């Protein structure tokens, strides 16, 4: 009899189901904390990933035949439910509902903070999970469900929540959809809901280059935008949006528009702002362009603008390895650089910059640069500076000898 039981997997599983304890393969789950659903914007995705590393292989091997092993403790049961909602595993939820939760998913689950399962499913765009939880009578839904579904572009979830739930949404729904370029959702919310959006909706859409959303919000909505719209569009090189906002809106921009456009190499935007706007720029424009190696922008600003730059231009150009920029600034500007040009280039490993600065500029400190190269493991630069220092000492010694041989006879005469 005992041999018959021990040789039967089904009978052994039945026997083991009455025993306390947990199968070794599931032990890693016990160390995982429950990810909080209170702040979906900062959801603990690492915990979900860790639980998936254990549960997914388990499901692959056992399918749903060993659900009893996964629900030995309320801690595991909670993780299984959360994992199923997060990863769109409807079959797991249905099995749990049939075998453990009677007619209502949360009747027998003792977790008071499980109030946002529908929010989580909507956040992930899992329509069938949202539908299942709604039909099961689960009340874990807030305005965050539609807000996040709209933000992430899950239009079917947005429409389902609008038609079947009463929680609605907030202004974050349309604003989030606009910022990510989801025009169909923006239009749906505009036509079917009354919450509207924030002015930063157009700001974010403009900065991200979503022309169609900017045009729609301008023509259909009254919230408008702020100076951040043109600033953001300029910084990111969206010249068509810059032109549209200039021609159709009154908010304008600040010097940050041209500064940012220059720093990111968008010369066409710089020219547009120079020709059509009056805000201008500051020294940060040329400084930023030099730091990122946009020599053409540096040259244009030098020729057409009067703000100039500071020592920061050559310093950052050198530190970032842009020798062509450093040479041009040396030949055409008078601001020069600071000791940080040589020291930073040495620490960053730009030997060609170090060699050029040592030969053409006087601001740097060889000893400081050598120390920085040594601290940052720049052996090639360290060797070159060591050799250069030795050569300078040799030249100085020879120069003193020549001077002595010329001066001493005069003193003794």
TrEMBL record:
InterPro entries: Ankyrin_rpt, Ankyrin_rpt-contain_sf, SecEffector_AnkRepeat. Transmembrane segments: none annotated. Pfam families: Ank_4. It comes from the Eukaryota. PANTHER family: ANKYRIN REPEAT-CONTAINING PROTEIN. This is Ankyrin repeat-containing domain. The lineage of its organism: Eukaryota, Sar, Stramenopiles, Oomycota, Saprolegniomycetes.
């Amino acid at each position: 009899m005992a041999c018959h039981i021990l040789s039967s997997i089904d009978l052994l599983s039945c026997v083991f189901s009455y025993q306390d304890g947990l199968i070794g393969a599931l032990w890693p789950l016990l160390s995982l904390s429950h990810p909080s659903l209170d702040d979906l914007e900062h959801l603990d995705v690492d915990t979900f990933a860790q639980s998936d590393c254990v549960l997914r292989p388990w499901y692959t091997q056992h399918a749903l035949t060993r659900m009893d092993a996964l629900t030995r403790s309320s801690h595991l049961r909670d993780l299984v439910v959360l994992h199923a909602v997060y990863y769109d595993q409807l079959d797991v939820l249905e099995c749990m509902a049939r075998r453990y939760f009677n007619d209502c998913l949360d009747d027998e689950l003792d977790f008071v903070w499980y109030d946002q399962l529908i929010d989580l499913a909507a956040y992930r765009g899992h329509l069938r999970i949202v539908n299942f939880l709604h039909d099961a009578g689960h009340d874990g839904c807030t305005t965050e469900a539609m807000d996040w579904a709209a933000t992430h572009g899950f239009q079917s979830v947005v429409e389902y929540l609008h038609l079947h739930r009463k929680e609605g949404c907030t202004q974050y729904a349309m604003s989030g959809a606009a910022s990510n370029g989801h025009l169909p959702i923006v239009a749906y919310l505009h036509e079917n809901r009354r919450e509207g959006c924030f002015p930063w909706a157009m700001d974010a859409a403009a900065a991200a280059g979503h022309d169609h959303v900017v045009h729609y919000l301008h023509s259909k909505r009254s919230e408008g935008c702020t100076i951040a719209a043109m600033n953001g569009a300029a910084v990111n090189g969206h010249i068509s949006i810059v032109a549209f906002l200039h021609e159709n809106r009154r908010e304008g921009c600040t010097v940050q528009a041209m500064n940012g456009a220059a720093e990111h190499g968008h010369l066409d935007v710089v020219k547009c702002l120079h020709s059509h706007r009056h805000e201008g720029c500051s020294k940060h424009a040329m400084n930023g362009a030099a730091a990122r190696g946009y020599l053409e922008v540096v040259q244009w600003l030098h020729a057409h603008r009067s703000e100039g730059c500071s020592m920061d231009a050559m310093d950052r150009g050198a530190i970032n390895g842009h020798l062509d920029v450093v040479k041009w600034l040396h030949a055409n500007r008078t601001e020069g650089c600071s000791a940080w040009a040589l020291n930073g280039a040495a620490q960053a490993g730009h030997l060609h910059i170090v060699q050029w600065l040592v030969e053409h500029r006087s601001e740097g400190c060889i000893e400081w640069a050598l120390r920085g190269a040594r601290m940052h493991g720049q052996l090639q630069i360290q060797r070159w500076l060591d050799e250069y220092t030795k050569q300078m000492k040799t030249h100085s010694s020879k120069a003193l000898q020549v001077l002595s041989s010329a001066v001493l006879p005069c003193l003794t005469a």
